[in-house]
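Before a computer can learn anything about folding, someone has to put a protein's shape into writing. The three-dimensional part falls to structure tokens, numbers that each stand for a local backbone shape. The protein below has been through that process, and both of its lines are reproduced in full.
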Amino acid sequence: MINFPQTAITRNPGDIFEAARRGPVAIARHERSTFVIMTYGRLERLDRLDSRWRHFIEEAPPELIDEAEAALNRFEAEGDA
């Protein structure tokens, strides 16, 4: 994933949108990825990818909660790299 500083939103928006056409783009504030910009088509594909993630936490089976926590931990570890 390509990373841009938050200041690039106003200084180089064309670069961000061009990169987002190729894949998700992370926007960092104070060197920490905070937002992601992607095409609407990619968002739609992610939305259809796995409806299992549409549970409320109280309804989710324990194995799904474990899987979600592991995914979040991996995501956070990648952001620190």
The two ends are 12 Å apart (CA to CA). The chain has a mean pLDDT of 83. Helices lie at 8-11, 13-22, 40-49, 62-80. Residues 11 and 65 are 40 Å apart (CA to CA).
